[in-house]
Amino acid sequence: MEPALVAVHNSPSAGVPGVVDIKDASVIGNGGVIFSLNLLVSTDVAAYFVLALAGFMWTLIAISHCVLQQRYVRRRPFVDRPDLAYPPVTIIRPLKGIDLNMRRTLESSFCQEYPAHVEILFAVEDPNDPAIEIVHELMHQYPKAAARVLVGQDNVGINPKINNMLKAFAQAQNDLLWICDSNVYTDPGTLRRSVDLMLDDKRVGVIHHVVFSETPTTFASMLDNAFLGTNHCRMYLAINAVGIASCLMGKSNLYYKSALDSVGGIASFGQYLAEDNMIGQALWRAGWRHAMTGDLARQPVDVSSIAEYWSRRIRWVRTRKYNVTFATLGEPLTESVLLGFLTSWALQYLYMFNAYAVFATFMLCWAGMDMLFFYRINHGPPSSWPWFVLGWVCREVLALPLWVVAILGDVVTDKQRAANILFTGNKGHRGRQDDFLLVLFSQLVRFSDSCQVAPEANTTLGTPFLLSRTTVKNNPICKCTCDLDTPAVGEQLPPQATDDGKRVDSDRCNEEIRDGFGWGYSFLWLKRWIRQAVSLERRLMDAKILKIWRLFGLQPMLGSLKCRDFGGRSFEGR
Question: Which chain regions cross the lipid bilayer (predicted)?
């Protein structure tokens, strides 16, 4: 007697989903039965996961609207407390060039309704910067304001904003600092409401404000306006309302200088392009909570073309993908088009819903919630509803291809300067800046220290490719400190060095670095953290393991290393 085949069908011809049909085994063997059932179960799990994800996203949308109603529609009034209870504040404004409506944005710092002393420091790199003239006009208009212009630059890393602000941090007279970008306008009561939150809860060490764009003048500006006023703002409020991790942007932040000094000081963050995210994470891990007021960091939109909008969004994703890696990987699943497509597939697969009707309903509901969100946080309609809706549609359609392009590359540009995002793993600051696969693996290992590679332009790059018990300082590409005993910075490597009992020639080390840092250095990284030095290294050096290592692209990724610093100089690994 032939064994029977049990197959489950979810097609209309099979009747009710889940009906079990018995078929002759001559058609498919028992192995096919197991494979079919496993595939079916996997598809069911995927469909239910999509529905769960859709439910989660709609929950976040609901949370964002609740926060919007509580915090921004019903703005918190000033707390009734004596003026002497307010601490003095230093406002730091980094400047470079002329921004849209710059006089209005900078003037907002002079117009803050704050009962205590306010110091305003404008940090400029170039003494001939045209922004200085605007600041001098404002200082003449408000002679009683304690405002100063600080000119000069300290080079502590690749981040130009940190390099520019360092002198202001050094000369700030107050412990409470408000870092506000030059292109941000804030309402007169923003500072007082922010300090009120910090005084009400001593655990709060960071106050930040959500970015909101205004005055779009081009269609590209409308795209940016639609993104910041809906998707970005909505997710920003929802994530911070949940409050399970640090999530902030550096457009407008208040924090204590002493708290920042306790986590390494402002100079230690100069090696990161996304310094705001790294500062927030460091303060969060130090025990300081983050809070938000009902004020907006209003940014006049100045996007002249679609290409410029594309470049701005690319820079955002690329600087975030190494700081919040898993969140960035899952970002497409939070976008309306892809999530709507997957939801329509899941409902059709599980419950025979019409996929086209589901997708259309999903997108209409999503668009309606976004339009309502924008109207409420803007306290009124956009400048043009038709153009705004068209900008919103284009923004949603471009979201997925933009994300793909951003993930596949590492170069970012900012005001005609370019840099290659690389991996860093400094002790105390778990940055993410190099090959994406290594970043994913590093998040699983959760290491806290690694070798650092610093090109001659004082750009700090980190790499988990460690040279065993060797310090290389004299190769023309980079300076690499990789000694397990942590030698002093600047220590010179002698012509011959000892490496695990063997003589190692420094020229050969340099040659190996130029040839790609050598796959063997990766094994020492594993050895250092898994604590199985010799046995693990021997197993990994097996030829079969090496083939797998190369299969995932881990061998050549530093062999073709290319880095352009903000000065435009290039450093290549070959």
Answer: 45-68, 353-375, 387-408
Rounded distance, CA 280 to CA 263, Å?
A: 11
Is residue 293 a contact partner of residue 77, using CB atoms and an 8 Å limit? no
- Closest residue by Cα to residue 263 from 468, 426, 400: 426
Alpha-carbon distance of 533 to 321, in angstroms, equals 31
What is the Cα–Cα distance from 83 to 9, expressed in whole angstroms? Answer: 73
Residues 6+ apart with CB under 8 A from 70: none
352 CB contacts (<8 Å, ≥6 apart)? 12, 17
Q: Is residue 436 within 8 Å of residue 407, measured between CB atoms?
A: yes
- Look up residue 45 and give its two tokens: 């799990």
**Gap between the Cα atoms of 341 and 356, Å rounded:** 9
pLDDT band at 230 (very low <50, low <70, confident <90, very high): very high
Q: Residue length, the chain?
A: 574
Q: Which contacts (CB < 8 Å, 24+ apart) does range 539-546 have?
A: 546/519
Q: What is the CA radius of gyration of the chain?
A: 28
Q: What is the DSSP letter of 78?
A: P
265 SS3 class: coil
Do the beta carbons of residue 28 and residue 5 sit within 8 Å?
yes
Task: Please state the φ and ψ torsions of residue 366, each to the nearest 5 degrees.
Answer: -65, -45
Helix (H) or strand (E) holding 234: helix 233-242
Task: Specify the residue for token string 């202001």.
Answer: 168
Measured distance CA(112)–CA(133) in Å, rounded: 21
Quick: pLDDT tens for 500-534.
333 334 444 333 333 333 333 343 334 344 444 44
First to last CA, the chain: 68
Residue indicated by tokens 């990987």: 329
The C-alpha atoms of residue 448 and residue 63 are separated, in whole angstroms, by 34
Q: Per residue in 233-258, pLDDT tens? A: 999 999 999 887 889 999 999 999 99
Please give the DSSP secondary-structure letter assigned to residue 429.
Answer: B
**161: Cβ contacts below 8 Å, ≥ 6 apart:** 94, 250, 275
Phi/psi zone of residue 73: left (φ > 0), alpha (ψ -120 to 50 degrees), beta? alpha
Secondary structure class of 448 (helix, strand, coil):
coil
Our separate counts of H helices and E strands in the chain read 19, 19
Is there a contact between 302 and 221 (Cβ–Cβ < 8 Å)?
yes
Give the number of other CB atoms < 10 A from CB of residue 374: 22
pLDDT in tens, 308-336: 999 889 988 988 887 788 888 999 999 99
Q: CA–CA separation, 558 vs 70, rounded Å?
A: 50
Q: Which of 189, 180, 192 is nearest to 116 (CA)?
A: 192
What is the rounded distance in angstroms from the CA atom of residue 475 to the CA atom of residue 170?
A: 34
Sheet architecture: strand order including 176-180: 146-151, 118-124, 89-95, 176-180, 252-256, 204-214, 289-300
Contacts of 35 (CB under 8 A, 6+ apart): none
